[in-house]
Amino acid sequence: EIVLTQSPDTLSLSPGERATLSCRASQSVSSTYLAWYQQKPGQAPRPLISSVSIRIKGIPDRFSGSGSGTDFTLTISRLEPEDFAVYYCQQYSSSALTFGGGTKVEIK
Amino acid sequence: QVQLQESGPRLVKPSETLSLTCNVSGVSISGYYWSWIRQPPGKGLEWIGYFYNSGSTNYNSSLASRVTFSGDTSKNQFSLLLTSATAADTAIYYCARGSWKIDSWGQGILVTVSS
Q1: Helix, strand, coil percentages, rounded to 5, for chain A
Q2: Which chain B residues in 73-112 lie under 8 Å from chain A, judged by CB atoms?
Q3: According to the model, what pLDDT value does residue A50 have?
Q4: What is the DSSP letter of A82?
Q5: For residue B103, which of B37, B23, B21, B55 has the smallest C-alpha distance?
Q6: pLDDT digits (tens, 9 = 90+) for A74-104
Q7: What three-state secondary structure class fits A32?
Q8: Burial class of residue A47, CB neighbours in 10 A (0-12, 13-18, 19+)
């Protein structure tokens, strides 16, 4: 089973700043099967990005994904008030799906 | 637009079976993969497994011995059974569409395992 490690655990930033979230895999992940989700308190996760860098329909272009192999990044170019939330990366490999532990983006 | 709604007992006694149903609207469950994912209060997400209505299933190896999925096309719903429940199974349970890529989620249902 591939383990995903997200860092940092918490990111304290101000609106308008750039957020860079890291997701590192214990083994190489196919680019097809790496996704990102946003979760706000009391809500279900919301799909943001699939296949490393493809934004889901309706997701603002300030969200972008990049990476390959074992290192992946979610970037939020300019934080809006509604972007403060927890973000999870997720991979699928060898018939098993795993999530990272999450990064909380909080208001500084 | 697909909508999913979880239902079932919110309190389960230890050693009993946790049983949940996901009602799907907006699309037929036939032809799609469907998943269950859970989240212990204040913690991260754990994939339970997915199934295809033809009967194909894929379970998280850590839960496989206790989990069963099924689907009912006449009611357009699918279900989760988790046997021998313990306090560690206390979580918000989400039903969702997709196998490797989850594109739609239910709102989630908190199930507590306690006597």
Answers
A1: 5, 55, 40
A2: 94, 99-103, 105-108
A3: 94
A4: G
A5: B37
A6: 999 999 999 999 999 999 988 899 999 999 9
A7: helix
A8: buried
